[in-house]
Amino acid sequence: MNTQPKTLLQKENNFSEWYGEVLKRAEILDVRYPVKGVYVWYPYGYKLRNLIYTILRSLMDKEHKETLFPLLIPKEELMKEREHIKGFEEEVFWVTKGGSTELDIPLALRPTSETAIYPVFKVWIRSHRDLPLRIYQVVNTFRYETKHTRPLIRLREITSFKEAHTAHADRADAEEQVKKAVALYKKFFDELAIPYVITRRPDWDKFPGAEYSIAFDTLMPDGKTMQIATIHLLGESFARTFDIKYEDKDGSLKHVNQTCYGISERCVAAVISVHGDEHGLVLPPEVAPIQVVIVPIVYSSEGKNGEVEKVCLAMYEELKKAGIRAFFDNSEDRPGAKYYRWEMKGVPLRIEVGPRDIRNNRCEFVRRDDFSRMQVPLGDVVSEVKGTLNEIQNGIAKRARETFFANIYKTGGDEEMEELSTKAAHGIVSIFLCESERCGQEVEEHLGVNVLGEALYGDGNENGEGKCMICSRKAKRVYVARAY
Ligand code: 5CA
Ligand code: ZN
Q: How far is CA 206 from CA 87, 170, 345, in A?
C-alpha cells in the first residue's frame, strides 16, 4: 500500500528554487552569511557531509597519507608555474596587509595547493626509495569565482576540498596512478549512488599546468551537468618548475612525474539534487545522518510514558546496539508534523508504533524512497531494518541510473543542429567531434552547450569512430551538455 503525501516542492520544473528550499528546510546550509559565495553548514548538513567524507577518506587511506598544508602561499611560489598561474590569476584572493602594515611578500589564499605543496616535495623527495609519494588533504580553498555563485556548487570558499597529490619515478607509474584514481572515484560515487560519465577534457580546456585532465560529470534535475571530480596528469611540468628531483638506482638525478586529483562538496550537492524529490531529501542509507526514525502514535488517553513509549525506547536501544543510526522522535509534535520533518530531511526509513500495533505485536515501516508500507513483527525489527535499508540503497541507485541513462542521447550523424540543441537542453549528447579548439567552440556556440570531453566511460557507445560534425575529419565520441 502506498500513501504518498501530497506534493510540497516542485523539483522538475523549478530546480533552482527546489534546491534553495531544501537546503534551508532540511537544514543543510544557511545561506545568510554576509559574504558572497560563502555559506554556513548547519549541524545536520555537516553530519551528512562528514558521513560522505568518511567514505572518501577510507578509500583514500588505503594508499595515501593524509597531511595538512598551510592556507597561505607566498606570491613568488604561486607565480612560479606559468601555465598554472595564467589559469588561476583572476581567481586568487590576496592577503596584503598585517594590521596596517603592508606585507613585504603578499600572501595568496590557496585556490588549490600545488604551489604550497611542491616546494615541500622538493625537500621531502631525495631518492627513488621515497617514491611513489601519495598524500591528500581535506581543506578549505578560495576562488574568486565571477560566474553566478551557488551553495555547494560554485563557492568562493570551498570548505571541503579533498585534494590528492602524488609523485612517481616515471611517467608510466604516474599514468597508472591516474587509472587508480579513476577507479577510486568510481567506487566513491557508486557508494553515493551518483551516476556519472567520465571524459578526457579537451586540450584547450584542461587544468592549468596539466598534460591532460579527466573529469567525472553527473546530471542535475534541470538537465545541466555538474563536474564532480577531476584527475590530472601533471607530468614533469611542476617538477621542473619546483626542481623536484630524485636519485635513481643508477645514481642519476631525475625529475619526478606527478598527478593530482580533487573532489569538493559538489559531491554533497549531487547527493541532494540527484536523489531528492517533491518532499525534500532522499538520502542513501550509507550516508544518512539518521537512517531510521521511530515515531510513536500516541493517543491522548495513553499519553507519555505509556506502553507505546516503552516499546519505542526498547526498539531504539536495540537498533543503536546493532550499529544503526536511529532516532526516537518523542517530541510533543503531532505525528503529521514529524512525518513532514523527517521526510524533508531524507531519513530513509520511518517506523510507526501505535497502541493497536503493540496489541498485535508489530510495527509499521514506511520507506522514504517510494512511501511503501510494510508490517513487521516487533521481534524482527533489527533484521528487517537492515534488509530494508539495503533495498532502499539499491532502489535509490537504480532509479538514479535509469534517469541518468534515459537522458544521454547518441547522435547518428544526420541530425539538424536544432534537434541536437533541444536534446542538449535535457541531458548529455554524444557526438562526433575532432580535437580542434575551433570545432569545439563552434559546437559550443551553435548548440549552446559545453564540451565535456572525449567519452571514456558512459552510455556504452564510447568507442565509436566517425567524422567530426563540424569539419568532417576523423573524430571520436565526445559528450556535450549544458554544464554548471
Ligand atoms: N589541483 C587540482 C586537483 S585537486 C584542482 O584544483 N582541480 S580542479 O580545479 O578541477 O578542482 C577539483 C574539483 O573541485 C572540480 O572538479 C570541481 O568538482 C570542484 N570545484 C572547483 N571549483 C569549485 C568551486 N568554486 N566550488 C565548488 N567546487 C568546485
Ligand atoms: Zn572538427
A: 10, 22, 37
Domains, the chain: 15-275 (3.30.930.10), 292-394 (3.40.50.800), 408-481 (3.30.110.30)
Which residues touch 422 (CB under 8 Å, ≥6 apart)?
Answer: none
Q: State whether the beta carbon of 201 lies less than 6 angstroms from ligand 1.
A: no
The dihedral sign for the CA sequence 183, 187, 188, 190: positive
Distance 399 CA to ligand 1 centre (A): 27
65 burial (CB, 10 Å; 0-12 / 13-18 / 19+) is exposed
Residue nearest to atom 23 of ligand 1 (CA): 154
Q: Are 477 and 444 in contact (CB under 8 A)?
A: no
How much is the pLDDT for 4?
A: 60
350 CB within 6 A, ligand 1: no
Bond into 132 cis (ω within 30): yes
Distance of CA 345 to the CA centre of its chain: 18
Ligand 1 centroid to 466 CA: how many Å? 32
The phi, psi pair for 13, rounded to 5°, reads -90, -20
Does ligand 1 come within 6 angstroms of the Cβ of 228? yes
CA distance 427 to 222: 8
Distance of CA 350 to the CA centre of its chain: 26
DSSP 379: G
Tell whether ligand 1 has an atom less than 6 A from the beta carbon of residue 163: yes
| Protein residue with least CA distance to atom 18, ligand 1 | 228
Counting ligands in written order, the one closest to the CA of 142 is 1
| Strands 292-296 and 349-353, sheet pairing | parallel
Ligand with smallest separation from the Cα of 160: 1
Query: Residue 377, preceding bond cis, omega within 30 degrees?
Result: no
pLDDT of residue 174: 98
C-alpha cell at 79: 607565480
Q: How far is the CA of 98 from the centre of ligand 2 (A)?
A: 52
210 lines ligand 1 (CB under 6 A): no
Query: Is the CB of 264 within 6 Å of ligand 1?
Result: yes
Least Cα distance to 163 among 268, 262, 63 occurs for 262
pLDDT given for residue 5 in this prediction? 60
* Ranges of the chain with pLDDT below 70: 1-7, 299-305
Task: Output the pLDDT for position 245.
Answer: 98
Residue 417 pLDDT: 81
Pocket test for ligand 1, best of 83, 152, 161, 224 (most atoms within 8 A of CB): 161
Work out the widest C-alpha separation in the chain, in whole angstroms. 86
- Give pLDDT, residue 36: 97
